[in-house]
Amino acid sequence: MLDLLALVYFLYQILLGWRRGFVNMLLRFIINVISLIISIYIFSQLLSLFFENAIFIIVFWLIFWLLKSFIIYGISKITDILHKIPVLSTVNRLLGSLTGALLAFVFTIVMINLLTIFSPFSIEIKTLLDQSLLTSFDLFSK
After folding, report:
1. pLDDT of residue 89
2. For residue 96, which of 7, 22, 43, 127 is within the disulfide window of CB 3.0 to 4.6 Å?
3. Contact of 137 with 113, CB cutoff 8 Å
4. Does 140 reside within a domain?
5. pTM, rounded to two decimals
6. Phi–psi pair at 132, nearest 5 degrees
7. Is residue 138 part of a domain?
8. What is the pLDDT of residues 62-96, one digit of tens each?
9. How many domains would you assign to the chain?
10. Alpha-carbon distance 55 to 63, whole Å?
């Protein structure tokens, strides 16, 4: 099930990259990485305030998505103008698809690692990870 979700997400990001182009997807990738780093920093500062493991996950992703959304909204006007440059055309779309795949890859690694961290607290998560082919790669911690 986890493998199917990851595959669908990869295909979605590749198609999104084709539609939006390289400049937009590259900026989205950079925004995701910056938001992830800032979220980890803020989350580590707030860690002592929360006692429930489920709250850890919710707060982390809430901080991440809020930061990402705020930054994407602020930069979206610039990328719309850059995407309309006719010189970029097909190369822009192909590079956008590759950047979308890279974004999906990084997101999948982060999600698998977060699920792995919390797998001792949930039998369902542990079972899901054990059945997944994604966790057999060395990129994911066990």
Report:
1. 67
2. 22
3. no
4. no
5. 0.65
6. -85, 140
7. no
8. 887 888 888 777 777 766 666 667 766 677 788 88
9. 1
10. 12
